[in-house]
Each structure stands twice: as C-alpha cells, then as structure tokens.
Amino acid sequence: GAYDSILRGTSGKRLMQKVAADVWRPINDENEVEPKDGSDVYPTIDVNIQDVAENALMKALIKNDASHGCVVLMEVKTGEIRAIANLTRTDSGMYSERLNYAIGHATEPGSTFKLASFLTAMDDGYVDLDDKFHVGNGECMYYDKKVKDSHPPKTSTLTAREIFETSSNVGTTQMITKYYTKDPQKFVDKLLTFNLGKPLGLGIPGEGKPLIKGVKHKQWWGPTLPQMAYGYEVLVTPLQTLTLYNAVANNGKMVKPRFIKEIRNKGLVVKRYTPEVINEQIVKPATVKKARELMEGVVEHGTGKGLNITAFKVA
To answer: Is the pLDDT score of 10 beyond 90?
Structure first.
C-alpha cells in the first residue's frame, strides 16, 4: 500500500471519437500520454528468516494462550527489517495476520522500558552497576499506587545490576525517584533524546503515536515519575522499542528501521536506500558498554536464563 504509486506506474491516454453506438476511433495516430510500467520494489525481508519468525511466534502464542503478538528482526548496522510477523487469535482459536502491531500499536511497554531508564541514570552519572538500592520485600507505595515485583527479591538490598537482571520494578522506581524527583523533567528530556517521543517516520501509513509525558502534561501527577521508570504512563510501539535496543547493539548509533532495499525499473536500479542515522550517539560509549553488560546479565544470571545458549552471545 505504501509503495502503490511506484508499483502502479501510469496509465496511457488517447483521444477517441464516438462514431456509432459502441464504436470509437482514435483521433490521432499516437497516444497523447504513453503508458508507463510500474517499477519493482525490492524489500529487505528475508523469506527464510520470515518463515522461522512466524513459526516461532505462532508457537509462543499457542503456548501462552495469547490474544496477539509480534516479532521483528532488525539488522543492527543497516536497520533493515529481515522479518516482521504479527498474529492475532481469531474467533475460531486459530492465529492469522490481522493488524500490524509492530508498527501501529503504541502501548505501555512495561519492563522493556527499563533499559531507557537505566541508560538515562547511568549516562547522567548518577548510577553505576554496583550501586545498591533498598527494595525491601519487593513492594513500595507512591501516593496511593503500589509498585510490586513479580517475584520477591533474594535480599532487601540489590545492586543496579541485580535490579536490571531480575527486572525489579521496585528497584527501578527507587533508583529513578532518588535522582530525578527534584527535577523530573530532566528524566523526560533525556528520554526524548532517545527519539522515544516521536514517530519513526517509516513511510508506511498507520504508525502508532508514542507518548512521553512532560511535567506540564495535563495527566502528570504524583506517581507519574515512578510509573514511567518501569514502562507505565508512556506509550511506544514495539518497533520504536526495538530501535532503541538496536542502538545499544550498534554501539550507540541509532538507525531508522527500513523495509525497502531498492527500486528497479526493467531490471535497472533507479533508487537504492541506504542506512538512515537518527542519532549518531544516543549515550556515551561507556554507558553503552554498561548497558550491554546489563543486558547480557539478564540472560546469564536473571530472568532470561532460558536463552543462555552456547552457540552465540545473547543479550
């Protein structure tokens, strides 16, 4: 749909004169406008990887009896999307492609947003990996909002590294509120430098609109800062989240997701798409290094142990 004008080409036009009921004759020997064939669009999708991605997503949705889900595979350096699958459970209980959640569905991201919080606190110089924070029994209150961990912490004090590895909501909120309560806008402004507050501009219609509230937003209230810390009261699409994670994999360089490699006409390349950099360096190189260490730790010691395979490094 997005590339219809390129694929369609243009229709030819010829002036005709009606000479009988259903009989027309051309006025001139040649067309007034010659028809032009459409061009061919070469996408970045790899059909083999796409097949694996769709099957893996299907298995995961069935296993968890989920209503819907998506998976996107993005090439780190180029931003080229190698696979994108979106499945929805139908009334019959089967799964089919109904809606592009990855691009169009801006929702509260929850724990995947903790990476943004940690990048912010580490890059601002407030937090190092072994700094300790009190998490108690894994519950705390902000005004009338209870923040709770999905599983009790092993000790009442956790390091920043352990908070990330075990995905502690309480630890993350304690960390962010400790350093940003006096100036919450500073936290917000840093998040905006990660391009989280605006659409990616993909050239595909229907991209979900993200929301990162500022302190002057009409819905900003007491618990907003601690809630934002672990991915609530914010809206982002899965592809916007992926773009941030990809930047960490790419040593801090944020590239735009891309679905098209090139456009050809009659076999000749008429346009070649190259990587588009959104932000040359989202955080300091030292911060990127720490973030990668945290993400690897999730798989080695934390909530992602099931992915700790020996074939290659997983974060």
So the answer is: no
